[in-house]
Amino acid sequence: MKIKRSLQLIALSLITSFSLVSFSQQAIAQTKGGDQVYQPQVGQPGKDVVWVPTGDELVTKMLQTAKVTKDDLVYDLGAGDGKIAIAAGREFGARAIGIEYNPDMASLAQRNAERAGVADRVKIIRGDIFKEDFSKATVITMYLLPDLNLKLRPTLLKLKPGTRLVTNSFTMGDWEPDQVINTSGNTGYFWVVPAQVEGRWMLSGLEGQSVASLDLKQRYQRVGGTITLGNNPPQALLGVELSADELRFRYLDSSNQLQHVKATIRGNSMDAELIGTYANNRFSGKRQ
Fold first, then answer.
1. What are the tens digits of pLDDT across the range 206-263?
2. Which of 118, 127, 159, 200 is 20 to 30 Å from 224 by CA-CA measure?
3. Rounded to 5°, angle at Cα 83 from 99 and 131
4. Domain 40-193 has CATH 2.60.40.60
5. What is the CATH topology of the domain spanning 199-287?
6. How far apart are CA 162 and CA 205, in angstroms?
7. CB-based contacts of 271, cutoff 8 Å, min separation 6
């Protein structure tokens, strides 16, 4: 009986030890972003990039810089294990969709979302970032190589003005970021998609002028140009700023007074007003 009892205790001890080891391995795997079904390895090759998860500090600062809220729809391009999309849902209450090419990684990311308790608002799909439609995004996050950023750039610039873009480590070529995000070990970059304002705009209702026009040149969010009032020669605009769909500039009116303009761009239409001097002086513009 004593021998039998000893064997039972040994068996129980082995089972307990095995369970603890198994639990520890599962915990470690999940900490690294994997689970018992699939365990990705840092640096493993993918379709266009290798998988390296974004650090926790930078994830938080990227989403904070983009001012993510519960009203946002965040798309993470190249979602990996779902870390950024999950953080957007769990920490900021946003809806999030991650696009991941690797089917095993995409399935893992969805399981991670379920384990994090955010599967009701975070979805990971298996797809190609160059083929999927993410035009409804209000925020886009990326950790891609520079050549992929450049390949995506024309599509990103066509998104709704005001869409916020955040990348880990890599820029968009000569499209300067609106803000650089620094953490203890990483760097991120932030942009706001600008409205397309380049061209000639015919203005109606400005200072009683029968004829007035704007001629604008644009390079991403940098804008310059001239304004022409009646038969006067064109004059250079001063202090031009473009953020999302809002254009601001200054000019000298027919009395040589400095005027401040704030305009909202809606496609080929402009709703504008003079700030300060003229009460309720609103005017409009149409792009030719």
1. 987 789 999 999 999 999 999 999 999 999 999 999 999 999 999 999 889 999 999 9
2. 159
3. 10
4. no
5. Lipocalin (2.40.128)
6. 27
7. 263, 264, 282, 284
